[in-house]
């Protein structure tokens, strides 16, 4: 009976193994979209907790765009900032603003939206204690440096620049003149928050409550979120469908396959490898529209080798050595548009989009070679273009850009790609000034204003000025433009600043990124807004 | 026997510490994870410092490791960057992957061993040759090719299955992914069983059994197969661990929210807590599976004794 004893011990060990591995649990929430006008849409697991001032990427942004409405709302087509909850925003000096909140708005739990809902939310977003990644948005408000000091502990709980003056009115005092400040208020970080956000924070996070056209029906983290139309929504942009089910996909290729198999209604991220087949698979159910994203090559101005007088010719030469047309067509299948300036076409001409770069952004190998030589040549004879290799298929285009430069200069060693393993490591090296040559930079606008494409990126020591570009003339013009109350004039001054940037070629504009999406034949009226987020509330189910 | 099991369990302790330390250091070498949290822009330094403090990243590595291990023993595996406790991620991911592994192992055992026995007994027969050829094809085609191909054919062209598995991942939806995951191992199991059977077929005890006049069926199952299974069991046991952690490709293709997917996401986001937590559990699974295999030897072959 030896065998039997052995079997007993084996069974015991099996039990131990099972106990150790089976951590129990299991998740709820079944089924996808289908009946009752529900639209199913692809999703990715949001990187940060779903707080308005803590969400800085598109996956969390999708949810916020459905469950929140702010003082302003950007028109999905033109990107223009229109009043939503704002009755009026008044100022006489571009520094002190009086904001009146419309009556009749409530959160989906019935709580009234008042001036306090905004002021408390903004103070929460700004406070260092709450670790909100978008807190710099409140940086223009007076008292921000007290609640969010660069070093040490905060010395105040709330910002002195925010005062509730009535049930529906509050005043904002800024530290500097900023005439287009009201237009920034459509950004999700400026959303109002209900009291339950503070009183039961964990509960709120597991099922966020807002004031937008949808309410969250169920949310199983990491896999699925079901949103339902909020019937009592008081705003003008009521949902045109019964609800949206966001499904997390492990891979955008799988989501695309699911769409072609008819199990999913909307994919808002067509994988690069499928771009060739997309018109055959989807026909006119494929959207490819400009989004407020620009890709550039930045330079390490902190490195003495890359910061010599006369090198603007080198940088302009490099810009002219890049064949943007060919790369956007062959590698990106026209989901990128060759850049003509440092902003984005979504701004429109009135917003400041203009062909400022001109010939300096056109492919011209002979001129490029001449300019690079006049600019002292590439420092050290060889330069690297750094990029992160883990996401976004950057390798292909960086290699193509290098090829283009090498061909134009007639030197096979002029440019090579420098892959960095992960995005986090890449960003860490970029933000600690470790770059030894040009590096890829991408900018997704926060709000559709020319200011947002210039000031955070090229103003001396600005928050996202990773290359440490600096030109006093540029800074002065930006300050002037911010103080200008007349919008068209302000745009004109920003464009002058952009001319200064062009003279220095402070960064090489590469291309504007489009948003791409595909949808099933069950739904119609699908579009992407300038932030490349689908306009969910307008989707109709056939 | 009991003493042997206890000794083996005790041996797991140093392996466990060594493995977690190695993984901890490896993830740490990858660099600063906070920088990746703010998209294509720099985190504002005050918030970054605050976050580092919250995740304990401002302390020296050895101290981080000690704190982490201390927490693990109280059942706290830390928090992922999106605010979810890692234990919650595990509670969602492991049942799914265990189901997938069970499906895959069943395929290996049922199909792999059956094919192995058939071909082993009929060596040189056309059946043997064609199965051998088939296993060669399966072995040489990478998993992601098989996976994408089956997904396209069965899911999109013929519509037999849903190309993406739902978050609940019931057994019925895991059959095709399980087959894909098992395919390569299945081929190995077939070949291992075949060789082993073919070898033992000529062993003295088989001849004795036949000479005793035992029915052929009993000779094959009780005498031949039981003795031939030892290398196969070794392989399948080690494969349990490999399948659970190595399903990254299959899980991504078929949208399975299991361990592989969580690990992948943890690595891409450089989330030390997620990666170390999941790998720690996987190390334990691997160790226990190995122990189980060693104990099964004694069941299969009475000549093997553990004292």
What does this structure look like?
The complex is a heterodimer of chains A (542) and B (307). Chain A has 542 residues and is an alpha+beta fold. Chain A has helices spanning 2-21, 58-67, 115-126, 144-147, 181-184, 196-199, 201-206, 252-260, 278-282, 311-320, 324-330, 348-351, 365-374, 394-409, 423-431, 450-458, 472-483, 487-504, and strands spanning 38-43, 72-74, 81-83, 86-91, 96-101, 162-164, 169-173, 214-220, 224-229, 243-248, 266-267, 286-298, 336-338, 383-388, 415-420, 439-444, 507-519, 523-524, 540-541. In chain A, helix 16 packs across helix 18 (487-504). With 307 residues, chain B is mainly alpha-helical. The model of chain B has no long low-confidence stretch (mean pLDDT 85). The interface between A and B is large, with 82 and 74 residues.
How do the strands and helices of this protein lay out in sequence?
The complex is a heterodimer of chains A (542) and B (307).
Chain A: H1 2-21, E1 38-43, H2 58-67, E2 72-74, E3 81-83, E4 86-91, E5 96-101, H3 115-126, H4 144-147, E6 162-164, E7 169-173, H5 181-184, H6 196-199, H7 201-206, E8 214-220, E9 224-229, E10 243-248, H8 252-260, E11 266-267, H9 278-282, E12 286-298, H10 311-320, H11 324-330, E13 336-338, H12 348-351, H13 365-374, E14 383-388, H14 394-409, E15 415-420, H15 423-431, E16 439-444, H16 450-458, H17 472-483, H18 487-504, E17 507-519, E18 523-524, E19 540-541
Parallel strand pairs in A: 1-10, 14-15
Antiparallel strand pairs in A: 2-3, 4-5, 5-7, 6-7, 8-9, 9-10, 11-17, 12-16, 12-17, 13-17, 18-19
Helix pairs in contact in A: 10-13, 13-14, 16-17, 16-18, 17-18
Chain B: H1 2-29, H2 45-54, H3 61-73, H4 86-121, H5 126-140, H6 143-157, H7 175-200, H8 204-211, H9 216-245, H10 248-253, H11 259-268, H12 272-300
Helix pairs in contact in B: 1-12, 4-5, 4-7, 4-9, 4-11, 4-12, 5-7, 6-7, 7-9, 8-9, 9-12, 11-12
């Amino acid at each position: 009976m030896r065998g039997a004893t052995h079997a007993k011990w084996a069974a015991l060990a099996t039990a131990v193994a099972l106990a150790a591995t089976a951590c129990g649990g299991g998740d709820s929430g079944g089924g996808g979209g289908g009946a009752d006008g529900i639209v199913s849409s692809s999703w990715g697991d949001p990187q940060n907790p779903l707080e308005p001032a803590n969400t800085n990427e598109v996956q969390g942004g999708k949810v916020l765009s459905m469950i929140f409405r702010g003082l302003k709302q950007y028109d999905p087509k033109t990107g223009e900032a229109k009043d939503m909850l704002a009755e009026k925003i008044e100022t006489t000096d571009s520094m002190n603003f009086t904001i009146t909140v419309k009556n009749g708005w409530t959160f989906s739990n019935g709580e009234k939206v008042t001036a306090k809902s905004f002021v408390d939310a903004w103070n929460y977003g700004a406070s260092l204690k709450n670790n909100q990644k978008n807190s710099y948005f409140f940086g223009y408000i007076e008292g921000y440096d007290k609640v969010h000091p660069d070093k040490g502990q905060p010395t105040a709980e709330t910002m002195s620049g925010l005062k509730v003056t009535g049930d529906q009115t509050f005043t904002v005092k800024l530290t500097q003149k900023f005439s287009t400040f009201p237009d920034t208020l459509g950004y999700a970080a400026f959303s109002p928050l209900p009291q339950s956000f503070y009183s039961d924070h964990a509960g709120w996070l597991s099922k966020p409550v807002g004031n937008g056209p949808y309410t969250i029906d169920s949310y199983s983290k990491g896999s699925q979120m079901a949103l339902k139309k909020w019937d009592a929504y008081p705003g003008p942009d009521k949902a045109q469908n019964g609800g949206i089910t966001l499904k997390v996909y492990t891979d955008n290729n799988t989501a695309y396959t699911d769409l072609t198999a008819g199990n999913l209604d909307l994919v808002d991220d067509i994988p690069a490898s499928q771009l060739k087949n997309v018109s055959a698979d989807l026909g006119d159910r494929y959207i490819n529209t400009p989004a407020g994203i620009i890709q550039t090559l930045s330079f390490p101005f902190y490195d003495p080798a890359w910061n010599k007088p006369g090198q603007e010719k080198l940088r302009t030469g490099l810009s002219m050595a890049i064949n943007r047309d060919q790369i956007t067509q062959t590698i990106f299948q026209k989901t990128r548009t060759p850049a003509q300036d440092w902003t984005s076409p979504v701004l429109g001409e009135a917003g400041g989009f203009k062909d400022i770069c001109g010939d300096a952004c056109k492919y011209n190998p002979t001129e490029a070679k001449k300019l690079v030589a006049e600019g002292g040549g590439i420092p050290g004879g060889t330069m690297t273009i750094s990029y992160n290799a883990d996401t976004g298929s950057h390798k292909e285009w960086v290699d193509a850009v290098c090829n283009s430069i090498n061909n134009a200069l007639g030197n096979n060693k002029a440019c090579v790609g420098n892959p960095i393993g992960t995005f986090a490591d890449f960003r860490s090296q970029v933000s600690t000034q470790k770059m030894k040559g040009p590096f890829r930079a991408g900018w997704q606008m926060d709000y559709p204003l020319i200011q947002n494409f210039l000031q955070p990126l090229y103003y001396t020591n600005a928050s996202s000025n990773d290359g440490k570009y600096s030109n006093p003339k540029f800074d002065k013009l930006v300050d002037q433009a911010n103080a200008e109350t007349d919008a068209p004039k302000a745009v004109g001054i920003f464009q002058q600043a952009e001319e200064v940037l062009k003279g220095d070629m402070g960064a090489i504009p590469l291309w504007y990124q489009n948003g791409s999406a595909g949808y099933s034949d069950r739904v119609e009226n699908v579009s992407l807004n300038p932030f490349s987020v689908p306009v969910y509330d307008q989707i109709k189910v056939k | 026997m009991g003493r042997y099991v206890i000794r083996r369990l005790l041996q797991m302790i140093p392996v466990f510490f060594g493995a977690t330390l190695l993984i901890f250091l490896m993830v740490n070498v990858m660099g600063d994870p906070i920088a990746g949290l703010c998209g294509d822009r720099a985190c504002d330094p005050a918030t970054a410092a605050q976050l580092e403090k919250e995740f304990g990243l401002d302390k020296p590595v050895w101290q981080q490791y000690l704190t982490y291990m201390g927490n693990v023993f109280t059942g706290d595996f830390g928090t992922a960057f999106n605010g979810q406790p890692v234990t919650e991620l595990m509670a969602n991911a492991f049942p799914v992957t265990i189901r997938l592994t069970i499906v895959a192992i069943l395929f290996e055992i049922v199909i792999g061993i059956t094919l192995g026995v058939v071909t082993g007994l009929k060596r040189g027969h056309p059946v043997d040759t064609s199965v051998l050829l088939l296993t060669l094809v399966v072995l040489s085609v990478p998993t992601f090719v098989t996976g994408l191909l089956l997904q396209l054919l069965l899911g999109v062209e013929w519509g037999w299955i849903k190309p993406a598995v739902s978050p609940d991942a019931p057994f019925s939806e895991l059959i095709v992914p399980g087959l894909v995951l098992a395919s390569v191992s299945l081929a190995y199991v077939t070949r291992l069983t075949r060789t082993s059977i073919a070898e033992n077929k000529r062993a003295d005890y088989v001849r004795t059994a036949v000479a005793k006049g035992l029915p052929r069926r009993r000779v094959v199952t009780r005498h031949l197969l039981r003795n031939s299974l030892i290398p196969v069991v070794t392989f399948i046991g080690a494969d349990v661990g490999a399948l659970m952690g190595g399903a990254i490709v299959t899980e991504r293709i078929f949208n399975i929210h299991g361990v592989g997917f969580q690990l992948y996401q943890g690595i891409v986001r450089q989330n030390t807590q997620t990666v170390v937590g999941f790998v720690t559990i996987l190390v334990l699974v691997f160790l226990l599976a190995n122990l189980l295999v060693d104990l099964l030897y004694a069941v299969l072959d009475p000549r093997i004794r553990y004292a």
